[in-house]
Specification:
The chain contains 9 helices and no strands. It is mostly helical.
Length: 156
């Protein structure tokens, strides 16, 4: 109804993200950022999409713009650097996130993306114990797809 509402474009992008319409989501997140440059949530999703599309180098500038968002920034650097094969930098970002134990759900997602299922489930259990609000995304988060065939996922 309001084509100048950045939040509406972001919501559309989020929907497209979870139903695997990544190209459409990129367009809509960019539109949201064009309308509101301080829309940090759109930058997070855009970075995740670039990583999922095999373009992690495109995610790095978006991640760098998340200066005031420490946990998401570290989370995204851990994903992007892993996707780029820069394991030391990925491990450094994860280690910093672990040291701060800022967001247990994001830590679980990193491990799932790295195909480290045992660690992913350990951190999902921690997220559950802490009532982490990220858990609402568990069934639809594309970055957790590597866990879907594990019997622990259905139990979780």
């Amino acid at each position: 109804m309001d084509p100048l509402n950045a939040g509406s474009w972001e919501s559309l992008g989020e929907t497209e993200f979870v139903i695997d319409q990544l190209d459409e989501a990129v367009v809509d997140f960019k539109k949201a950022l064009e309308l509101s440059t301080d829309n940090w949530n759109g930058r997070i999703f855009l970075s995740e999409i670039y990583i999922m599309q095999g373009r992690p180098q495109n995610a790095l500038p978006e991640i760098a713009r998340l200066q005031d968002q420490n946990a998401p920034r570290l989370y995204l650097y851990a994903l992007a650097y892993h996707a780029l094969g820069r394991e030391k930098e990925s491990d450094d970002a994860l280690r910093e996130l672990l040291a701060k134990a800022i967001d247990t759900y994001l830590i679980a997602v990193i491990y799932a993306f790295r195909n480290q299922s045992d660690e992913a489930f350990e951190w999902l259990d921690r997220a559950y114990a802490k009532h982490n609000d990220g858990l609402i995304q568990t069934k639809i988060d594309p970055l957790l797809k590597s866990l879907h065939n594990d019997p622990r996922f259905a139990t979780f």
